[in-house]
Write a structure and sequence with these properties.
Elements (H helix, E strand, L loop, with lengths): L18 E6 L10 E7 L6 E5 L14 E4 L8 E5 L2 E6 L10 E4 L8 E3 L10 E7 L5 E5 L9
Parallel strand pairs: 1-3
Antiparallel strand pairs: 1-5, 2-3, 2-4, 4-5, 6-10, 7-8, 7-9, 9-10
Length: 152
């Protein structure tokens, strides 16, 4: 089977094989582009459950569970798609040292958010991607929380 290349579009994924249908039972919608982690299975066992990654919650939030990107909005009580990687365009990446700099799960923002540059607060930051283009308005980030993206 041949995998056909696809053109990279803004805020889309290019890995169509690395996606899963999941369910959200967190009590709130999960927005597209948020970093999520697997939190279990639903009552029927038919769907994996996801919740936004919350590294600010301390050790309990740093569960070594598979992490993905919400490829669609996942409504509370409903299902949606998560992806292994996701390209985000049109963002401010000027805080990056250079192209290839890591992107981290945010400690100070809402659960599931990410940031360019080391989070304040110390500890072991969670890398979730890399900067592909450094620019204040047209920056590009590859979110790939499963991948190893280099040293801090």
């Amino acid at each position: 089977m041949a995998i056909k290349p696809r053109r990279i579009k803004a805020n889309t994924t290019t890995d169509y094989l690395g996606s899963w249908q999941v369910m959200n039972e967190t009590g709130a919608d999960i927005e597209k582009g948020k970093i999520v982690q697997i939190s279990g299975v639903n009552s029927s066992g038919a769907f994996l459950l996801v919740k936004p990654l919350d590294v600010g919650a301390g050790p309990a939030g740093l569960v070594d569970a598979p992490k993905f990107i919400a490829g669609t909005k996942i409504p509370n009580g409903g299902s949606g798609v998560v992806r292994e990687n996701y390209i985000v365009t049109g963002v401010d990446t000027s805080a990056a040292a250079a192209v290839g700099s890591p992107v981290y799960a945010s400690l100070s923002a809402a659960a599931g958010d990410w940031q360019v540059g080391l989070p304040a607060g110390g500890g072991s930051p969670t890398k979730v991607g890399i900067v592909l283009k450094k620019d204040a308005t047209t920056g590009v980030v590859l979110l790939a929380p499963q991948a190893r993206v280099g040293a801090a």
